[in-house]
Amino acid sequence: MTATSPEGRVLPGLLDTEAIRKDFPILDRTVHDGQKLVYLDNAATSQKPRQVLDTLASYYERYNANVHRGVHTLAEEATAAYEDARDKIAAFINAPSRDEVIFTKNASESLNLVANMLGWADEPYRVDRDTEIVITEMEHHSNIVPWQLLSQRTGATLKWFGLTDDFRLDLSDIEQVITEKTKIVSFVLVSNILGTVNPVEAIVRRAQEVGALVCIDASQAAPHMVMDVQALGADFVAFTGHKMLGPTGIGVLWGRQELLEDLPPFLGGGEMIETVSMHSSTYAPAPHKFEAGTPPIAQAIGLGTAVDYLTAIGMDKIAAHEHAITEYALSRLREVPDLRLIGPVTGEDRGAAISFTLGDIHPHDVGQVLDEQGIAVRVGHHCARPVCLRYGIPATTRASFYLYSSPAEVDALVEGLEQVRNFFG
Amino acid sequence: MYQEVILDHYKHPHGRGLRAGQAEVHHVNPTCGDEITLRVRMEGTVIGDVSYEGQGCSISQASASVLNDLLVGKDVAEASRIQETFLELMQSKGRVEPDDEMEDLLEDAVAFAGVSKYPARVKCALLSWMAWKDATAQALSTAPTEETV
Question: ipTM, 2 decimals?
Answer without folding.
Answer: 0.79
